[in-house]
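Hello, quick one for you while I still have it in my head. I'm working through a protein record and want to make sense of it properly. Would you mind checking whether the tokens look sensible for this chain? I owe you a coffee for this, so here goes:
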Amino acid sequence: MKKPLAKNKKRLLINLGLVALALLAVIGVFAVDAAANRKGELDLTAEQAQAYLEATLLSLPTSGAECSKYTVENTEIEVLSVQPGKAREFVARVKYTTPDVQGMYEANKNRLFVTVYDYVQKREADGKKVNATLIQIQVESYILGLLESQPKVEGEVDVYFYDVREEEPVMCLSDEALNALLGGFVSVKDDIKSTVTFEKDGEQISIANDNTFRNGINQCFGLVNYDAKMPDTSSPLQQKLHDWGDEFYRNFIEDDRWMYLVEGLGNTLAITALALLLGIVLGVVTALIRIVYDKTDKLYYLDKIAKLYISAIRGTPVMVQLLIIYFVLLLPIGIEKFPAAVLCFGLNSGAYVSEIIRGGIMSIDQGQTEAGRSLGFGFWPTMWHIVIPQAFKVVLPSLCNEFITLLKETSVAFYIGVADLTRGGIKIRSQTYSNFMPLLAVAIIYFVLVLGLTKLVGMLERRLRKSER
């Protein structure tokens, strides 16, 4: 009893050591990650912040809209202070004086829409087409005149700069900050997009289905903010985890793409199960034909056919067999892809199963057969009651391994269009243009299935060894 206890104690110490090493590795990774994410050493002055902000405002795409150009060119800013934030950021307090775009729009909104409506009606009455650019050209000077006569507004707003481990801080000009700096520009554009009715001569006019009408007015306020997205200031490890999370969502959660894998797994298991049954039947029949010929010299022609079948299957790749069976033999007569895959993998498995069974039966000592004969059994009773039960223990582990191989071989079924597990991963890949996640998911699923079957085979082998003892 001392040796087994000492052995178990040694194994326990090894396992504890491995766990401790794993914990130290995890702690080391997080320590390095935390050090990489320590507060940055960059600094930002009010003058630098002012220069960044002025350059950004002047570089905003205005799409050629005169109202946008006028607003940007007539906006005055002054960075009053720059304070470090709670994280990797700087907060710049900005004082601004800018044209009151929102005040002008709210005071003249209905009149503006009526002006556009009258122009559109006149064009259509003359049989001329109307598009958004023509509407912009017609009303832009009118809006610009209203804007120039509108008093300016002033105020203060916070603009954030972030340390993202680069040479200079990165500014995030949010839509809220831009809206304040440019006199409500963003609010005006949003309101135009959401307007569906206006009043003319006491009557409500609907433009709910007239995108050209709204787009023409909106183009007068053409402005695009490319700096609104907040930069990622998380640690390198957190950024990588975020990227993986986004990639996982895009490949599997979005549009329920994970269902491709579920449906493919169902087809893979169905093909494997049906091919397994067909392979066992063919394998047993083929093995018995060859054994009968070896022991009795009967079934000569069937034995030659069995040898030819085994040689053909073992001498050619399974993918070539699949293509020949489907495209050459079955497709011309209207057989579907799924039964073609079952037939191919069943024939392929049957050849290997037959050799496994034949080898197991032939490995049983000839004395067992002679003992059965001496007891008065004929050939088949001897095989059934004496030889086959002993051979079963010998071939069962090999048969289980053949079944595992069969499961993996079914992955080539997608070559003929079967929606198996591999094809499910390829379909996700074709939609997301991502190679890593879909193919890794397919590999993991196959690995888990094979690992489970391998575990079962190992348990079965241990039970058989115990029964032998």
